[in-house]
């Protein structure tokens, strides 16, 4: 029987590589001693075949076979695009 692949939702924090983005997944957990809510985050190298993602985009990622030395996740859905400043796009052209 095939094991179900993990899925996570995170935000793109870097898109400087070819076909690869860094996605930060943040989760909340309770501290075992102090009983306070603590945020923990982890970075994942994710395969982006079309190189369409930018910093700030929210994506759903899924576990997959090893694609490179550190890359074991791929993008399955773009949840929302980040809002880009209008003056940044005008000055580029």
List the helices and strands and how they pair.
Blueprint: E1 7-17, E2 20-30, E3 37-47, E4 58-63, E5 73-80, H1 86-92
Parallel strand pairs: 3-5
Antiparallel strand pairs: 1-2, 1-4, 2-3, 4-5
How would you portray this structure in words?
- The chain is mainly β and 93 residues long.
- Helix content is 8%, strand content 51%.
- It has 1 helix and 5 strands, in the order E-E-E-E-E-H.
- A 5-stranded mixed β-barrel has the order 1-2-3-5-4.
- The radius of gyration is 16 Å and the shape is globular.
- The mean pLDDT is 90.
How is the quaternary structure best described?
Answer: single chain
N-C termini distance: 53 Å
Average pLDDT value?
90
Main beta-sheet annotation: 5 strands, mixed, barrel
Strand content: over 45%
Gyration radius (Cα, Å) is 16 Å
Give the helix/strand class.
mainly beta
The run of helices and strands is EEEEEH
Q: Report the uncertain regions.
A: none
Name the shape in a single word: globular
Attribute tags:
5-stranded mixed β-barrel, mainly beta
Entry summary:
The chain has 93 residues and is mainly beta. The chain has one helix at 86-92, and strands at 7-17, 20-30, 37-47, 58-63, 73-80.
